[in-house]
Amino acid sequence: MADTPKLRVAIIGAGIAGLAAAIALKHHEGIDVQIYERATALAEIGASIALGPNGMRTLDRLGVYNALDDSVAFRNISRHPMIYRQVMHYKTNEVVSTDSHQGDVEYRHLTARFYRAHLQEALLEHIDSSTIRLSKTFDSVVLDEEKDELRIKFADGTTATADLLLGADGINSAVRRFFAPTSAPTWTGWVAFRSVFPISHVEHISDLPDEACHFWGPDRTLFVSKLGKGLFTVVASHNSNPDLPDAEYKGAEWDSPGDVSVLRDYYRDWSPLVRSIVDAIPHTNVYPNRAGHGLDSWVLGGGRVTVAGDAAHAHGGAFAAGGSLALDDAWAFAQSILTVFPPDSSRKPSAADLQKALRLYEKTRKSHTDRVLETVHKGNRKRTERIGRRETDEELRARMKNREDVAWIHEHDVQFTFKNALSSLFDERRS
Ligand SMILES: Cc1cc2nc3c(=O)[nH]c(=O)nc-3n(C[C@H](O)[C@H](O)[C@H](O)COP(=O)(O)OP(=O)(O)OC[C@H]3O[C@@H](n4cnc5c(N)ncnc54)[C@H](O)[C@@H]3O)c2cc1C
């Protein structure tokens, strides 16, 4: 192994997918991973993010135990992933329906909520910081056939070489756009107002929920939850019809400062509990939700390039599934590489081996994430249809009770799917 040339893997983006993929490959002495990140620093950025049992199990599998710790991962004691409530003009706060884990989920894999920076820090603890190149914005990639390597160009004019490239550069992925220029996600009309602040701002509220709760009203929702390290999060929302030229928040910038007085106005008719939480929000940021369609293929650049996380499936964070999908992608990507290049291998994988690995990765992940995207687009269409049509209390309650059961997303078993994909690819080869 010491004399075998290393397989050079370039990862674009030091988000959740990129960091997890690097962690999953780091024990292989024959693989050199370099991460290229657009940001100038990996600063504390973002608000709250949830991981379902699938993402929690993948963190466990990757050995990222620090992220499973109660100090950063907030779980509902009741074991319900969330509690759906409706709060309307009669201000009941009553629990109309609950969701629950379907399978056998042990405590450390229960759905958890993180301050995104805590999750990112936990992942970063497992990465050699010298492998992360900051201020490197992906621009383009070509295959140098003579040298049999990829030449990656960055926006600052510098270049890097690699054998394989993973685009983990988020929802507006430049890697995905490079191969599929018309794949850019579009605004869904939904806007989230995310706030994270010390819990001391809301501790005076006598009936503050101990659990993560999702309040539903006829035209918007409010999500509240405790987070690790004494933090609290609120996610408020607004819906517009994205097709209208003068739609409110059309063109709003992602993660731009919002106005808390607007939120107080949105929720003025809601229950006293909701109003006291919204009144206590010290600041908020605006996150216009964007979603796109799946790629025809995840095997790009002649079998040398692929994508993971939001870059592969721009689902816009629906069902709070983005973090877990990114982790499962990262694990499946790494596992596919390790299949064609096991740690005891005495030769660097060929171009054909790499292509096979990417086909295995695609087979493991694409049909599942395509189904997630279909479900997301269906939900977005229904939400837009409801705009301007005031729901009755009965209709709202029915919508809450009959909402789609998405345990298949949160409890998806990537390991099982990987094994099936592996055997079906071998069956294809034999027949
Ligand atoms: C700053 C930030 C804050 C977020 N906040 C929240 C939040 O509060 N709640 C929530 O649910 N989700 C949030 N998200 C999205 C969430 O992290 C993802 O949906 C999910 O975790 C999937 O992760 P990902 O690794 O695919 O993408 P991301 O976590 O978005 O990571 C993508 C990474 O690629 C980098 N990048 C982008 N373009 C380029 C380029 N051209 N070249 C090099 N690097 C590039 C980005 O800077 C980023 O570090 C946030 C994402 C980011 C980047």
Low-confidence spans: pLDDT under 50, at least 5 residues?
none
- Count of helix runs: 11
In whole angstroms, the N-to-C terminal distance is 33 Å
Biggest beta-sheet profile: 8 strands, mixed
* Class of secondary structure makeup: alpha/beta
Task: Characterise this structure.
This protein is of the alpha/beta class and about 425 residues long. It has one domain (about 5-185, about 290-430): FAD/NAD(P)-binding domain, CATH 3.50.50. The protein has helices at about 15-25, 55-60, 115-125, 175-180, 260-265, 270-280, 320-340, 350-385, 395-400, 405-410, 415-430; strands spanning about 5-10, 30-35, 50, 75, 85, 95-100, 110-115, 130-135, 140-145, 150-155, 160, 165, 185-200, 215, 220-225, 230-240, 255, 285-290, 305. A hairpin with a 4-residue loop joins strand 9 (about 140-145) and strand 10 (about 150-155). Helix 1 (about 15-25) packs parallel to helix 7 (about 320-340), helix 2 runs parallel beside helix 7 and helix 8 (about 350-385) crosses helix 11 (about 415-430). The chain is globular. The model has no long low-confidence stretch (mean pLDDT about 95). Bound molecules: flavin-adenine dinucleotide. Flavin-adenine dinucleotide binds near residues 116, 138 and 310.
